[in-house]
């Protein structure tokens, strides 16, 4: 095996702490037993998110919140929801968990690579650059185009919850 091929294989399988390039973004979050994590495919092609895991962060650690079932395909522009057990909205494509808690969330692809995240505290392993500001009675979401600069403080703002719909 050539050194270059070995390098490509290593890069493609290494579990990192900085986000990889993925069109699927953590688009909106709301915490609590009625909370949710919304993922959105911002790309132009369908994304196979089967086997991806969503982690919640608390203190300096993260734990798995849920794993997306195998063969789950997210069409361009569509959403996948992970919702708390007390969530009262419609969940066309998603998972139900006890509660969405912590100080942020991380998505990891089926190989364990970090694809996107948002954190609310400077010590959260979920944050990308500066943490986003927490919201009291609303959700925390990206703009309507789901822009991602890898700076949580710039990318997320408090808004009216819109799980499974375009953010305002």
UniProtKB/TrEMBL annotation:
Pfam families to which the protein is assigned, alphabetical: LTD
Region spans: Disordered: 107-168
Segments forming domain LTD: 15-122
Superkingdom of source: Bacteria
Biased amino acid composition, Basic and acidic residues: 144-154
Name of the protein this chain belongs to: LTD domain-containing protein
């Amino acid at each position: 095996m050539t050194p270059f091929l070995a390098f490509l294989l290593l890069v493609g399988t290494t579990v990192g702490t900085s986000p990889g390039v993925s069109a699927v973004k953590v688009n909106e979050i709301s915490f609590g037993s009625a909370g949710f994590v919304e993922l959105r495919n911002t790309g132009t092609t369908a994304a196979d998110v089967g086997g991806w895991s969503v982690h919640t962060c608390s203190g300096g650690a993260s734990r798995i919140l849920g794993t997306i079932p195998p063969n789950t395909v997210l069409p361009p522009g569509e959403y996948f929801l992970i919702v708390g057990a007390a969530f009262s909205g419609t969940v066309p494509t998603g998972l139900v968990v006890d509660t969405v808690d912590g100080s942020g969330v991380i998505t990891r692809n089926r190989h364990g690579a970090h694809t996107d995240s948002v954190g609310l505290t400077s010590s959260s392993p979920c944050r990308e650059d500066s943490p986003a500001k927490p919201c009291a009675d609303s959700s925390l979401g990206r703009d309507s185009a789901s822009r991602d600069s890898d700076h949580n403080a710039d990318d997320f703002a408090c808004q009216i919850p819109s799980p499974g719909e375009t953010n305002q």
